[in-house]
Design a protein that fits this description.
This protein is mostly helical and 101 residues long. It is built from 4 helices and 3 strands; from the N terminus they run ααβαββα. α1 crosses α2. The chain is elongated.
């Protein structure tokens, strides 16, 4: 993995590198700052529950075990696209079926 120092060096010397390489270095630095440290962990089986919106056993990073899946939280200021709607938005998107009489 390329080090933080090397990425910073590439990003701060755009004349010494191809423009595409500089852009990639800047994006990687921004992504690393956004993700930072894992926020929580979930067991591999619990990952399925997170994906389908059901409850999952999510643990603090201090209780991580080998094979656990790390969860990251984006900074509030990070310019990341909203890929999935929030839980409240998802509830509003559910198809409403009229009650049978």
């Amino acid at each position: 993995m390329i080090s933080e120092d090397r990425l910073s060096q590439i990003a701060s010397n755009p004349d010494s590198h191809d423009a595409e390489v500089v852009t990639m270095a800047q994006e990687l630095l921004q992504l690393r700052r956004s993700l930072g440290e894992p926020w929580a962990v979930v067991q591999p089986l619990g990952e399925l529950y997170v994906e389908d919106g059901n409850a999952a056993m999510i643990w603090p990073v201090s209780l991580a075990e080998r094979g656990d899946v790390c969860l990251y939280r984006l900074d509030r200021g990070a310019s990341a696209p909203n890929i999935t709607p929030s839980a409240s938005e998802q509830r509003g998107l559910r198809k409403k079926i009229p009650a049978q009489k």
